[in-house]
Design goal:
By secondary structure, this protein is α/β, with parallel strands linked by helices. The protein is built from 8 helices and 17 strands. The protein binds flavin-adenine dinucleotide.
Length: 323
């Protein structure tokens, strides 16, 4: 028995959400009194693979196969499931990232495992029961699910578990899996980065704005605040529908779901479809001129005021703080 963590990388580098998931998987392994094995797919440097040991992975399986250089949902799911079988892992952990959300159910089918995606806390093992708290209804609620199957797949929501550094370097070993042609029906041929800015799904701080900003010409102050805070920029759906901002910034039920440590919402009403994608943020700050705006109900901090007056003051304050 062991726990297997899929250590996701982006262009050969592990992300913070991966370290969170390894730390989380280590805590599960400790709870179950077993060891933690990591699996990495793609071209990651040997030092970075071994560094997963710092977060608790005793062994790191390295799958470097040219066909698997870029993410292929079906093939990655097959490789991870095969590794779980080969190493006798009955719990597979991964990050509830864009790719993790595609992988979790596929691995679940292959291992006949119960799946808890969007997990936000460590499982509770009580009297033979294995329960996991997770987000439900696109983040509008939490559910506690019991996984009754022998095998289990858990996808951890980014920013919901802290990175814990524990033991020393992990022992890296090559792991080879025969790939099947049928796993490569859809493949990524090329990745073109549209921007060098902080990636929205991974951002720890997000500065987001809505129709209250009146037009695309007013986004300079949003960009400036985001730049000062090292934040990603985001927007509401009508803003991207109107072409004021790119669709890649649209958050919510029909856009990207984010869970940063800090979400600053400027001139956004807080419609339920918007909240669905942002409500698992740790701290929410709302700036809106309407004190009755629904967003204030879920805000940790609220500023009732005109964004065109509040934002310049906020920018000056951050500049003064950083000076
Ligand atoms: P508005 O609702 O127009 O709100 C603008 C806000 O700005 C108001 O609260 C106003 O008080 C404030 N304001 C105005 N001027 C100022 C000022 N000068 N200073 C400060 N505040 C000011 N929406 C999403 O965002 N994401 C989704 O994924 C999404 N999916 C949807 C799916 C479906 C099926 C449907 C039906 C809708 C979806 N929507 C989604 C749309 C959603 O219902 C709302 O219409 C939308 O979120 C509203 O965007 P907004 O808050 O920017 O604009």
């Amino acid at each position: 028995m062991s726990v297997l963590i899929y250590a996701e990388n982006a262009a050969g580098k592990f992300k913070k959400s991966t370290f969170e998931a390894v730390s989380y998987a280590k805590a599960i392994a400790d709870q179950a009194g077993t060891n933690l094995i990591a699996i990495s797919i793609g071209n990651v440097a040997a030092d970075d693979l071994a560094a997963l040991g710092k977060y608790g992975a005793e062994k790191v399986l390295n799958v470097s196969n040219d066909k698997l250089k870029n993410f292929v949902n079906q093939a990655y799911a097959s490789v991870i499931a095969e590794a779980a079988k080969a190493k006798g892992a009955d719990i597979v952990v991964l990050s509830n990232s864009f790719s993790g959300r595609g992988l979790a159910p596929r691995i679940g089918v292959k291992l006949h495992a119960g799946v808890a995606d969007g997990a936000v806390a460590l499982p509770v093992l009580d009297g033979g029961k294995f329960t996991v708290k997770k987000t439900a209804f696109s983040g509008k609620a939490f559910a506690t699910v019991e996984l009754t199957s022998a095998n289990k797949v858990i996808a951890l929501t980014p920013n919901s578990y802290k990175v814990v550094e524990s033991s020393a370097a992990g022992q890296v070993e090559d792991f080879t899996v025969e790939t099947k042609e049928s796993d490569f029906k859809a493949m990524i041929k090329d990745i073109v980065r549209s921007t060098d800015k902080v990636s929205l799904p991974d951002a720890e701080i997000v500065v987001s704005a809505g129709r209250g900003l009146k037009g695309p010409e007013n986004w300079g102050m949003v960009e400036e605040l985001a730049g000062l805070l090292g934040a990603a920029t985001a927007c509401s759906k009508p803003v991207s529908d109107a072409g004021w901002r790119p669709h890649s910034e649209h958050v919510g039920q029909t856009g990207i779901a984010v869970s940063p440590n800090l979400y600053i919402a400027i001139g956004i009403s807080g419609a339920i479809q918007h909240l669905a994608g942002v409500s698992s943020s740790k701290v929410i700050v709302v700036i809106n001129k309407d004190a009755e705006a629904p967003f204030f109900k879920v805000a940790d901090y609220g500023i009732v005021g005109d964004a065109f007056e509040v934002l310049p003051k906020l920018i000056d304050a951050v500049k003064a703080y950083k000076a």
